[in-house]
Design a protein that fits this description.
By secondary structure, the protein is α/β, with parallel strands linked by helices. It contains 25 helices and ten strands. The chain folds into three domains: about 325 residues, no CATH class; about 110 residues, no CATH class; about 120 residues, Rossmann fold. The strands form three sheets. Strands 5-4-8-10-9 form a five-stranded mixed beta sheet, covered by helices on one side. Strands 1-6-7 form a three-stranded mixed beta sheet. Strands 2-3 form a two-stranded antiparallel sheet. Strand 2 and strand 3 form a beta hairpin. The radius of gyration is 27 Å and the shape is globular.
């Protein structure tokens, strides 16, 4: 490996890796714009955009009782809201602003990787982003993951070096506080950063980092005190903090969104997250496995940077893994949020892998590292196969490869028949068994090929050959590992254009100051284009804030709602926006004698059947 690096340095001009990185950035941009135009808007995206617009315009304020639910730290809404306020409210503004932040995250990761590992490894980081469809797709939506990823990348730019000026350290510490006040789940970041600054840049710099970061965080909280405590109470045990009960929703109601996610689906969500973020997770994991003793590090400064990156990254991964998969998040289970959560800190995982590879890849790992590496390869390959079970088609199911002795002689039957009839397995279990087996076979294939490569050239330890080959395979197959999920949601239409047409229509038919009842789908995005309308704020979060039972006024105070409030709002609303597939529940209420229906909108918010909107106005 060392001789290969030396050869590249001597033969190839220094500008070649810069061009390679630039081409990766161009590919990232092209894919991001394509996803921006074809991806169906989500509840989170609509929530961030419209709440941010409300907060910036002064219509509502963060944590305002009876206002929109501020379930995330305020900057998660204020940052995209600022873009909406400056460049015009709409899905185009939100998504293009997110792509801009995504490019900044890629640039920041590249700068830091280049500093620690040179031009070629820096170029590799750009291509990790460009070849990961689900990361690009996530960055192409107006959600908070890309905001945090951008902040983390630039915190690393500012502080991860042998020497840093004081103003950069102060700016990074303030930015860490901004990240926490963008998503409260970034809380561990600031103390980890302060400790790194203290050990790497000295006591004086550490004190400045502590002071600037802490003061910024305190000021942010004072601005929204005391209602800001509503975002922290879910983290604190109720039995130990009864004095904070006034910031908690009473437990006399039951959230309607409480799905029962079994173990196998949770396991599926876990490995789905790994294959969507293969290099950050698996590269970082092998970075830990192959870390050498402290004395073997090429640079003590690199060791400190790696420790900061590893501790920050894996702490955040474990926190979010627990919240999404092993526990319950807030009032509802969010198991399949795990893969999106990993998007927050991709830059940390990528940079840890880069620093570990460049400065500490253990050239002579002990036997335990070898055994663990083999187990990781087999487990991850099997798990990735397991998470792809939905793509097992009839061709595989009906392969006649299971031997069977019949009265007429020896023959073969299809896999699906053998497993469903012989072992009484369900179709889903059969698909999981087949996909897991294929994943295990792929892992064994990686082991076998790595062994053959090592056998021909024994200059490199077999463990390093295996790890490098597995990482290269996963990196090159990243687009394939994403399979169906990376396809455009609506390849035949332009979602941004359709939202603009739909929004213009709604703005033209809804009279100013009308009170709008929304049952138009879980994404409130179309209402961004109708600033003259009034809404019922809890409906922005759709059924995720709907409860069965409970005191309606108390729920409304906390920006939640229930059936009693829904009935009350039906009598108060002037305009009703109903998703076509939900109209059956409204047919008896929206009678022609009391309501008129406007003409069919010229566009839909999605290409999915039944998502068209129907708009009704109460007759005088």
């Amino acid at each position: 490996m060392t001789s290969f690096k030396r050869l590249k340095t001597k033969v190839l001009p220094s500008w070649i890796p810069l061009v390679v990185a630039g081409l990766g950035a161009v590919l990232y941009l092209i894919r991001a714009v394509n996803y921006a135009q074809t991806t169906v808007s989500s509840l989170d995206e609509g929530s961030y955009l419209i709440k941010g617009m409300f907060y910036l315009s002064g219509t509502y304020h963060p944590f305002e009782p009876y206002g929109p639910l501020t379930n995330k730290a305020p900057f998660a809404f204020l940052i995209p809201g600022f873009a909406e306020y400056v460049f015009g409210a709409g899905l185009r503004t939100g998504r293009y602003f997110s792509i801009f932040l995504g490019l900044l995250a890629v640039l920041g990761t590249w700068i830091t990787a280049r500093r620690w590992a040179g031009n070629w490894m820096a170029a590799l980081t750009v291509w990790v982003f460009a070849l990961s469809p689900m990361i690009v797709k996530l960055h192409a939506r107006a959600v908070s993951e890309v905001i945090i990823a951008c902040m983390l990348a630039w915190i690393c730019v500012l502080v991860l070096d042998e020497k840093r000026t004081l103003w950069k350290i102060v700016l990074a510490s303030v930015l860490a506080s901004v990240a926490i006040f963008t998503r409260q789940n970034m809380a561990p970041l600031l103390p980890f950063l302060i400790l790194y600054v203290y050990f790497q840049h000295g006591k004086r710099a550490g004190m400045w980092s502590f002071a600037s970061g802490s003061i910024a965080l305190l000021v942010f909280h004072l601005i929204y005190w005391p209602r800001v405590m509503t975002i922290w109470t879910p983290w604190l045990p109720e039995s130990l903090t009864p004095f904070l009960d006034s910031f908690r929703i009473p437990t006399d109601s039951v959230p309607i969104w409480d799905p029962n996610i079994d173990f196998w689906n949770r396991l599926n969500a876990f490995f789905q997250g790994i294959r969507y973020h293969f290099i950050p997770i698996i590269g970082g994991l092998f970075g830990l496995i192959l870390l050498p003793p402290r004395a073997d590090w090429k640079s003590v400064h690199a060791m400190r940077a790696a420790v900061f990156l590893a501790v920050s990254f894996f702490t955040l991964v474990l926190m979010h893994g627990w919240a999404a998969i092993a526990s319950r998040y807030e009032s509802y289970s969010c198991v399949f949020c795990f893969s999106n959560y990993l998007g927050f800190f991709d830059p940390l995982g990528i940079l840890f892998f880069v620093v570990a590879f460049a400065h500490a890849w253990n050239q002579n790992p002990h036997r335990a590292a070898r055994i663990i590496s083999i187990l990781v390869v087999l487990l991850v390959a099997t798990g990735i196969g397991f998470s792809l079970f939905e793509f097992v088609g009839n061709g595989l199911l009906n392969l006649p490869i299971i031997p069977r002795i019949r009265s007429g002689g020896f023959g073969f039957i299809a896999i699906v028949d053998a497993l469903t009839q012989g072992l009484d397995m369900s179709l889903v279990q059969v698909k999981r068994w087949i996909s897991s087996s294929l994943g295990l076979l792929a892992g064994l294939g990686v082991l076998f090929i790595a062994f053959l490569v090592w056998k021909r050239n024994r200059k490199t330890h077999i463990t390093l050959t295996l790890v490098n080959f597995f990482l290269i395979t996963g990196f090159l197959l990243s687009p394939i590992l994403h399979l169906g999920e990376s396809r455009p949601d609506c390849a035949e239409t332009d979602i941004i254009r359709d939202h603009e047409r739909l929004g213009a229509y709604l703005a033209s038919v809804i009279p100013p100051d009308s009170l709008v009842y929304w049952d138009g789908g879980n994404a409130f995005t179309p209402m961004i284009y109708v600033p003259q309308a009034r809404i019922f704020p809890p409906q922005i979060n759709d059924g995720y804030t709907f409860h069965i039972g409970g005191d309606p006024d108390v729920l409304y105070f906390f920006s939640h709602w229930n059936g009693e409030l829904a009935q009350r709002w039906r009598t108060e609303a002037d305009v009703f926006i109903i998703e076509a597939k939900r109209y059956a529940d409204w047919k008896d209420f929206l009678t022609p004698s009391e309501f008129q229906e406007f003409a069919k909108p010229p566009a839909s918010q999605s290409c999915n059947e039944g998502t068209e909107l129907r708009v009704f106005q109460r007759l005088p």
